[in-house]
Design goal:
By secondary structure, this protein is of the alpha/beta class. It has three helices and five strands; from the N terminus they run βαβαβαββ. The N and C termini lie far apart (about 45 Å).
């Protein structure tokens, strides 16, 4: 069984410190959400401060980004983290049923 927890911090620059604490507590994965901050920047900070903890976006909004930039960023994070980055994408588009 994997134990995962959200990486949350008031100051996004503390994401790395929070991730390091999760790793020290024995958790398997830290999950970042796109709310007020870019999850990819938080993933970078988290990967730099950890050695074993998987780092995941629990979702990054794909619709607002270039697919090529997302692929390059995810690949760079995968390389930096030594294979510990997990990309989670979402569209944030509400499905409309029926006619307008």
């Amino acid at each position: 069984m994997k134990v995962e927890m959200a990486i949350t911090a008031r100051d996004f620059t503390a994401s790395g410190e929070v991730a390091a604490r999760l790793e020290a507590q024995g958790l398997d994965c830290g999950i970042l959400f796109e709310a007020a901050r870019d999850p990819f920047l938080q993933a970078l900070l988290s990967a730099q401060r950890t050695e074993r903890l998987e780092i995941a976006t629990g979702v990054a909004i794909a619709f607002a980004r270039s697919p090529m930039i997302v692929a390059q960023t995810a690949n760079d994070l995968q390389t930096l983290s030594g294979g510990r980055f997990i990309l989670g994408l979402g569209s944030q588009i509400k499905l409309r049923v029926g006619s307008a």
